[in-house]
Amino acid sequence: MSVPSGIIHFETGDALPGVVVGYVSIRSQGGVSFLDADDLTDLPKFFATDEDRAAARKTLEELEFHIVAESRLGMAIAGPPQAWAALTDGELVAYEQRTRARGGRIEDVTHIDIVGPGQPDAPGAGKAKPDEIEGVVIERPRAPQGPIPPPNSRFHLRLPDDVAMILKAPAAHRAGYTGRGVTVAMVDSGYGAHPFFEAHAYAVRPPVTVVPGTTPAGDPIGHGTGEAANVFAIAPDAELWPVRASNQQGDMVAAVAGFMRAKMDGPDVLSNSWGGDYPDPLPPEPHAADRALVLEILDAIDQGIIVVFAAGNGSCGVEAQVPGVIAAGGVYANADLDLQASTYASGYHSDWFGGVDVPTVSGLVGMRPRASYIAMPVPRGCRIDLERAFAGGDDPPDGTTPYDGWALFSGTSAACPQVAGAAAVLRGMWRQATPKQVCDALCAGATDVYVGHNHPRFNHPAQRGRDLATGHGLINVSAALEALADTASQQQKETAVPDDLLGVAISQGHALTLADKLANDQGFRDHLEADPVKALASINVDASGWTPPEKLKLAPATEFEGLYASMQDNRKQFRTLIAYLSD
Fold first, then answer.
1. Does residue 9 surpass a pLDDT of 60?
2. Mean pLDDT in residue range 216-240
3. What are phi and psi of 302, to 5 degrees?
């Protein structure tokens, strides 16, 4: 085993876990393994054939692996150490690696490697015996980005109102832009039911888990539950899809599997308040064990999913650097609403992927030493709930009590779902917006921050214009909506539809109401099934309804055929209709 430069490590006698989560890459059509490729951004050449995928699935099932999730590239799997040994003809060993872990602390964290004849030197990566499997990766532990609050901070923000107000979301909400009909998947330590979510009537889909033997509706740490509230502060009518990627102790042992599982359901937005860390200076390229995750992230963006990652709390991980990812940094707003860069948040330049600056934009994050800033709901008795109540020494309590289900924390873990919520509002306004268009709008609308420095590890100053401390600045939801509306208007002009097909111009709120009404109108649905082209032509925008075919003055039917074809490719058919009517 060859350990990356700058990493302190030693083998440990600790027993291996009963279930090990990892990833298998199916043979790439381009003929070059993801472990050996120089360029990971040419995504299609890494796609697998259906035949190889079927063969790999058969092999894995015969070895009694549990297939957690699949993509066009590979599969996330879980199985006992002996199954991994049979797959790779190698041996699994545990070793300790000193890294930046939960709450920004430097700790020795247990990792797992595959060793044996013919196995690569790269830690966590391995070769498999079957020809159709070109490589395997053991999941690297990922850390939730900074859940522990700082000491001695009494000023704090409340969810949802304070966060929404500072990020300029209320005006958007009053105009009807609330993320309705938009789905936000969140991969984290879990989600536990809390009266806060029920009282606000937030929509949360039943959670799923990717670690065998864990309870889907559980969150031992409380990190995922608390951070989820930030999504709803900005997008109160979005639907949250929680994915648990933690083990029974709450450790994030299956982040890649969780990301893949979330991606399989096709959410609009995918929020990730977790990441790895690399030492200084950065190696020339990401470690082999991270290459599979890079490709899976690129694949999600290629499918139109808006992917948001936390920039980190003093850490420097590959996740936030992947091209197309919106990396969420941190800005602190004090009681007078003065803005400055958060000293808790990461920000840096990397030469990877042709050069990348992190963060892209920023959300609200507290200051060092512990970023205690936002009062968040957590499961009663979870680790964060008790840690904050019983803290001592240089980390005093945050003012909450044990088992009260509340704690003060933030970090870029909070900024990430705030940005994801903003992305949901934008996607709800214009369903056809691409991830890049949403990102560009968030950047264009951001409030410039030019005071302060980011985390001392990087110590970059906030300056006028884009900088490495806060990116383009603090997200401004209303301004981002205006920027995206301008983009939508320009695109509509470039692909103009004759005005007479629309009947009258309508607002987005009108379109939402009309689409929901039609979606629940069985007569219209029957009409749509019988003759989709005429059904679309029958929509009477002015009257917020539809006209029976015998009373129609039909526009040329061919004008609607393209619309129907696009609807066939979209499982949210009426949301496509919204976008069409709103252009």
1. no
2. 96
3. -60, -30
Does the structure show a pLDDT above 80 at 171? yes
- 573-582 vs 508-519: helix axis angle to the nearest 10? 150
DSSP at 238: S
Mark whether 94 and 164 lie in a shared domain: no
Is the domain of 96 the same as that of 113?
yes
Q: Which tops the pLDDT comparison, 398 or 71?
A: 71
Is 296 within 8 Å of 303 (Cβ atoms)? no
Indicate the pTM of the whole model: 0.77
What count of Cα atoms within 13 Å lies in the side-chain half-sphere of residue 286? 28
- Inform me whether the pLDDT recorded for 145 exceeds 80: no
List 25, 153, 273, 413, catalytic entry: 413
Which run of H or of E encompasses 358? strand 356-358
User: Is 282 found in the same domain as 217?
Assistant: yes
Confidence (pLDDT) at 104: 53
Model confidence at 573: pLDDT above 60: no
Residue whose tokens read 């832009």: 177
Catalytic residue among 25, 28, 153, 188: 188
Residues 442 and 510 in one domain: no
Strands 306-310 and 269-272, how do they pair? parallel
192 lies in the same domain as 125: no
Least confident of 29-43, 130-144, 525-539: 525-539
Own/partner pairs, 485-489, CB within 8 angstroms, 24+ separation: 485/429, 485/430, 487/430, 487/433, 487/437, 487/440, 487/441, 488/430, 488/432, 488/433, 488/583
CA 309/CA 282 separation, integer angstroms = 19
Q: Is 413 a catalytic residue?
A: yes
Nearest by Cα to 455 from 353, 557, 562, 359: 359
Q: What share of the chain is helix, strand, coil (3-state, %, to 5)?
A: 35, 20, 45
Q: Find residue 348's DSSP bridge partners.
A: 358
Domain extent at residue 182: 144-485
Across the range 374-387, mean pLDDT stands at 89
Is residue 492 one of the residues assigned to a domain? no
Q: 193 and 337: one domain?
A: yes
For the purposes of burial, counting CB atoms within 10 Å of the CB of 406, is it exposed (0-12), middle (13-18) or buried (19 or more)? Answer: buried
- Structural domains of the chain, count: 3
**Do 202 and 112 sit in the same domain of this protein?**
no
- Could you list the beta-strand ranges (E) of 520-579: 539-540, 545-546
Is residue 393 a part of any domain in this protein?
Answer: yes
Catalytic residue among 156, 173, 194, 223: 223
Q: Roughly how many angstroms between the first and final C-alpha of the chain, as a whole number?
A: 57
pLDDT over 90 (residue 199): yes
Q: Which of 140, 158, 179 is the last residue of a domain?
A: 140
Q: What is the pLDDT of residue 567?
A: 41
- Token pair, residue 120, equals 């690569």
> Do residues 460 and 453 lie in contact, with contact meaning Cβ atoms separated by under 8 Å?
yes
| Distance in angstroms (rounded) separating the CA atoms of residues 39 and 468 | 25
Phi, psi for 169 (deg, rounded to 5): -90, -30
Return the axis-axis angle of helices 288-302 and 255-264, rounded to nearest 10°. Answer: 20
* Domain at 275, CATH number: 3.40.50.200
Q: Are residues 78 and 172 in the same domain?
A: no
Burial classification of residue 224, based on how many CB atoms lie within 10 Å of its CB (0-12 exposed, 13-18 middle, 19 or more buried): buried
Does 188 participate in catalysis according to the annotation?
A: yes
In a domain, 252, yes or no: yes
